[in-house]
Amino acid sequence: MDFNAQLDAALKRLHDEGRYRTFIDIERRRGHFPKALWNKADGSQREITVWCGNDYLGMGQHPVVLNAMHEAIDATGAGSGGTRNISGTTVYHKRLEAEIADLHRKEAALLFTSAYIANDATLSTLPKLFPGLIIYSDELNHASMIEGIRRNGGAKRIFRHNDLAHLRALLEADDPAAPKLIAFESIYSMDGDISPMKAICDIALEFGALTYLDEVHAVGMYGPRGAGVAEKLGLMGRIDIINATLAKAYGVMGGYIAASAKMVDAIRSYAPGFIFTTSLPPAVAAGAAASVHYLKTGQELRDQQQENARVLKSRLKALGLPIIDHGTHIVPVHVGDPVHCKKISDMLLEHYGIYVQPINFPTVPRGTERLRFTPSPVHAPEDIDRLVKAMDALWSHCALNRQQLSA
Known about the structure:
single chain
């Protein structure tokens, strides 16, 4: 077989479909976020404004986080030195897990190197703990949840997105005695919509199912202490396992689950993705713990972020741009064509110094391609003004439809 020819063909398909992805080489500068330097292919640099980052609250630049990381690296060095079972558990890891457990009002928490790994490892391990487990998964769940459920070798049922009637029908069709788990997200990041969490919890109670909630795009952002949508709605006590990240609103790196002490003990004892992975560097754990602790009282950052998102959405709507608005902090602008989506992204960067990546298939279904903006508290009014004017000009330049979508 000509392996190089096969690789060429695979890459050509992506180019032909307009969804070949490129890395943009940027340098974040301490104290200047959301400004950064773009290292162009010709060797030159240009200042840009980042509008697609997941550091939702700018905590990756916050002095509280940076000071904690400096102190930890000066005290302990760089790496953790091993897996959690073999020399990789430090005071910083334990402190972070305690902060997370307190945040979600759970008995315990367990750290992973990413929320992807936390989802994959946990969901693929649960059937070992509950033989015959059936997992009911929302069709728009994140790829990490899908992969974990796929790999676990157990039974799965996929229910239509946020469709309670379909979920109920699937549960009713299965053996009442079989162990069951409903896996869903609080905020679905591509549209920014929220799950009917209370109704799902009610259904889970009715059928004796466990609840597994991904709060990745909500932790730090919602609730009086930033524990997520479940906290905002007063439902944390009805969620059995909460998954979330330390790499978005908390601005650092890592993922976790929070649950009962027995559940966490079982997952840490059986999940290969936890057992055989080197633990987070102590400095990263220290920075994440400082960020989680700070945001338990950091309501001003949440308020400013929500206000910037509201202003951006209202101004883009006023221009007739097709905003997908479910009232959350995520601002998707529907384009509907991968070539146009990539073209607008490239022109925003090249001509306006505005960096937003196109979101194409397979992240979203074909025909729903969009630009996904993530305002932060540190985006200034002039940043929003520049973005709105650029989008207005490019929408006209590309002759795109200004008919507004319904939420």
